[in-house]
UniProtKB/TrEMBL annotation:
Domain NADH:flavin oxidoreductase/NADH oxidase N-terminal: 4-347
Cellular component per GO, a single term: cytosol
Family in the record: Belongs to the NADH:flavin oxidoreductase/NADH oxidase family.
Keywords, comma-separated and alphabetical: Oxidoreductase
Gene Ontology molecular function terms on file: FMN binding; oxidoreductase activity, acting on the CH-CH group of donors, NAD or NADP as acceptor
Annotated InterPro entries: Aldolase_TIM (IPR013785), OxRdtase_FMN_N (IPR001155), Oye-like (IPR045247)
Entries under SUPFAM superfamilies matching the protein: FMN-linked oxidoreductases
Names of required cofactors: FMN
Keyword Nucleus tagged: no
Organism, scientific name: Comamonas kerstersii
Keyword Transport (UniProt): no
Protein name per UniProt: Alkene reductase
Length: 373
């Protein structure tokens, strides 16, 4: 029987186990530059089969939260290179999550104080994290976005391509395209946020156009074996909504099958919330979603996420429902989560007050079974 602790071949990348650290925004990269403590943080967690970094902006326009990292300046890339070297020195594998937040931003975070961009000029019922001039921080409503002109979209696709190339040059083992949780690509997918009347709006085929253009550009640049994608079919995160997610995401699954992706990372239910959450009249059928991908020829690893504990993860792996299981918040307080799972020992409790922003406290100072940090 296949175990959570068995090794896995991820499109030629050998993973020591099937436990993945999910992306976790921590807001500790001033000026979008990963710091030395960032390298420490990821290296501490390198026993995971795969680390997926916090969401990382592909451009200044793609920024949406204070002190999150980027991939678009030499300084940021140097910071990330220190991270990948530290993780590889511990025998770990790491991919970076490519991010454009779209409308989930604020004018103070945008180039020249401009409005954020989106498929349509619809303000999200959501908040973002800001650091004020006096050093205080907190959450504030997102700004009203402007609708992207059709002529601007090739430039955004190019930003994704350049970021993917930069990631590989910085030593990452691959990338994960963030197409989930109500950010730019997801905003185009869903009819609740996409009211366009051009070739990027209206029908499912049109609303998925940007997604497939981004996937094509990245896989042509770095190869499908180094490219994964994250999807969240029914999450309401960041005001994401579509009344008919099943046909939409089965179309996505069918289309993704031809790109030779490394993995498909699926958030089941509401991100960070109920696994049974649904949009539309019927529950989302995740089995049918996966079958659509497989029947269309998709060979990438199937990664599941949201609310899994060790027992649920073991069942998902043993049954073949998933190849990999991603854990988020458990990794914040348990850098040695793999070892704790293996030994069936108690888990540390996370300090929620230190999740966003700050220094080493609540970031790199959690204890391990070995007694080191």
């Amino acid at each position: 029987m296949t175990s959570l602790f068995d090794s896995f071949d991820l499109s030629g990348l050998p993973l020591a186990n099937r436990i993945v650290m999910a992306p976790l925004t921590r807001n500790r990269s001033p000026k979008a530059i990963p710091q030395p403590i960032t390298a420490t943080y990821y290296a501490q967690r390198a026993s995971a089969g795969l680390l997926i970094t916090e969401a990382t902006a592909i451009s200044h326009q793609g920024q949406g939260y204070a002190d999150v990292p980027g991939l678009y300046t030499p300084e940021a890339l140097a910071g990330w290179r220190s991270v990948t070297q530290a993780v590889h020195a511990k025998g770990g594998k790491i991919v970076v999550q490519l991010w454009h937040v779209g409308r989930i931003s604020h004018t103070t975070l945008q180039p020249g104080g401009q409005a954020p961009v989106a498929p349509s000029a619809i303000q999200a019922k959501a908040q973002t994290y800001l650091i004020n001039a006096d050093g205080s921080s907190g959450f504030a409503p997102t700004s009203l976005p402007r609708a992207l002109d059709t002529s601007e979209l090739p430039g955004i696709v190019e930003d994704y391509r350049l970021a993917a190339r930069a990631a590989i040059d910085a030593g990452f083992d691959g990338v994960e395209i963030h197409a989930a949780n109500g950010y730019l690509i997801d905003q185009f997918l869903r009819s609740g946020s996409n009211h366009r009347t051009d070739v990027y709006g209206g029908s499912i085929e049109n609303r998925t156009r940007l997604l497939f253009e981004v996937v094509a550009a990245i896989t042509e640049e770095i190869g499908g074996a180094r490219t994964g994608i994250r999807l969240s079919p029914v999450t309401p995160a960041n005001d994401a909504f579509d009344p008919e997610p099943q046909p939409l995401f089965e179309h996505v699954a069918n289309g993704l099958a031809s790109y030779g992706l490394s993995f498909v990372h699926v958030i089941e239910g509401a991100t960070g919330g109920s696994r049974d959450y649904q949009q539309g009249d019927t529950p989302f059928d995740y089995t049918a979603f996966k079958q659509s991908y497989r029947q269309a020829g998709g060979q990438g690893a199937w990664m599941v996420n949201n609310g899994y504990d060790k027992d649920m993860a073991e069942q998902a792996i043993a049954s073949g429902a998933a190849d990999l299981v991603a854990f988020g918040k458990l990794f914040i307080a348990n850098p040695d989560l793999v070892e704790r799972f293996r030994a069936d020992t108690p888990l540390n409790e996370a300090d929620t007050s230190s999740f966003y922003g700050g220094d080493e406290r609540g970031y790199t100072d959690y204890g391990t079974l070995a007694g080191s940090q």
